[in-house]
Structure formats: C-alpha cells, structure tokens
Amino acid sequence: MAGHTGVRGAGRDAEWAADAAEIRAALLRLRRATGLPVAFGGPLVGAGATRVRIGELSGTATAALDGLAVSAGNGLGGKAITLTRPCTVTDYRVARSISHEYDTPVAAEGLRSVLAVPVVVRRRVRAVLYGALRAPQPLGDRTLRAAVEAARDVEQTLVVRDEARALAAAGGEAARAGSWQEVRDTGAHLRGLADRLTDPALRAELLGVCARLAAADAGPPRGAQAPPLTPREVEVLVIVAEGATNAAVASRLGLRPETVKAYLRAAMRKLGARTRGEAVAVARRAGVVA
C-alpha cells in the first residue's frame, strides 16, 4: 500500500476531514451494535478519489493499518470500491475471491474474518467501512446488516451536508447578484435541512449559514449592516421561538441560564429588537426561525 500523497486543494481537504469525522462515529456505532472487536476505515483520496486511506481505527492493537491506502480493485476494500457493494471473507489469509497485496498489515493486526462496505453518495464511493474478527468464522447476516446500516447513516449525512454547501454557495451568489427572493428560498431550504439533522454541531453550522443569508436578505446595503447571528445565537432563538424559558433553553443546550441570556441579548442587539418576542419576530421574517 502507498501512503496518502496529496489532495486537490483546500476544499477537497476539508471535505475529506469532514468525511473522516462521520466515519469515526459510524465505526463506533458499528462496534456497539455488533460486538465486533475491530472496525476501521477512511475516505477516498487521491486523483480521481480511487484509493481509500485508512485513518480511522477502533479496537486495533497495532498501527499496522493506520495511514495505509487501498486502491480500487485491490484487496477486500478495493473490491468493494469497484463493485460498489459490501464484500466479505471468512478467512482473509486464504481467501481466493480477493487479491492479496495487503496481507502483511492485515496479518500484523491479526485479522481473519473481514467485511468491507462502501459509502456511496450519488453513485460515487466516498469511503469504506471495515469490520473484522481475529478468528476465521462467518460474520453472519446480522453483522453485515449493521455494517450496511452504518454506511447508510454516513451516506445520508454526507448527502445533507453536500446539499447544504451547494445551497449556501448558491445563496451567496444570489446575494451578490441582488436576487433576494432566491436568497430567501435558499435560506428556507437550508432551514428545512437543519431540521432533519440530529447532529447538533452540523445543525448549528447550517443555522449559522441561514443567519448569514438572512442578513444578506435585508437587501442592498444602505450604510452599516448588522453583523450576522452566530450559530449559537440562532439556536437559542429557535428554542425561544418554541416558547421555552431561558432555563429550559439552557437545559436543552447544556448551558448556564446566564449564558443563554447573553446570547439572547447579543441576538436582540444585532436584530435591532428590544424584546425577545420582537427578536423572534424579526428572525422569522428573515427566515432564520420557522
């Protein structure tokens, strides 16, 4: 295997880093759901994204797999990339259904029964998740289903994130062009995507984008413009809009009530509102709060 030799620009680098974070969480869920002692994986990298770089390890005993890259068509993971479907072997050492370029690191980690599941987004493999036993025994349908489900979870998150990025970019272009109705439509779509997310960090990020678009939606500049709301300020306003007290907001977000008040005061100041109710009303008109 060859190491990762580079990326195609900062945008692609950021995409791979975000993919890796999703993979890390999926591997932990996979081990909890199945009891597999080892799980690992990584995003596809390189020109044309045809190699999976293994950088996320869970339950491994050595560093043999860390940083290794599996090319499309080679080994179990490479086969999964090429076929875009899950692949398994009961005993990696003697399996005839795969090539054996990577026997040394696999043997160093003591792996025998292995599965590889591709993460496919819009017909493009974005990552591969692996699960393994240190004994040559069948993994079973339940384990395979759990691995496929973990991959699907990653796929859904990546689809939403990709769509949000594309919409944010489109909203920025619309704002620069003065297409304010398009900005409003983009903000509303992003707000809908945010409501579908369970990841609080990603949800806050999308709400922050909504806030920036709402600031742009104020129309062409007429002197100084209020700074956009931060993701946390938007999140506080969203919960306040549901009728929650500051104490309830603090409980849901894991903050102190005084901190919630500070976020709310900052949001009110930026929105030019004198009360929390007025702040919610302004945010609703701007499309930041449903």
TrEMBL record:
Q: Name the keywords, alphabetized.
A: DNA-binding, Transcription, Transcription regulation
User: Start and end of every HTH luxR-type domain?
Assistant: 222-287
Report which superkingdom the organism of origin falls in. Bacteria
Cite the PANTHER family for this sequence.
TRANSCRIPTIONAL REGULATORY PROTEIN DESR, TWO-COMPONENT RESPONSE REGULATOR
The protein here is known as Helix-turn-helix transcriptional regulator
Q: What is the source species? A: Streptomyces evansiae
Q: What taxonomic classification does the UniProt entry list for its organism?
A: Bacteria, Bacillati, Actinomycetota, Actinomycetes, Kitasatosporales
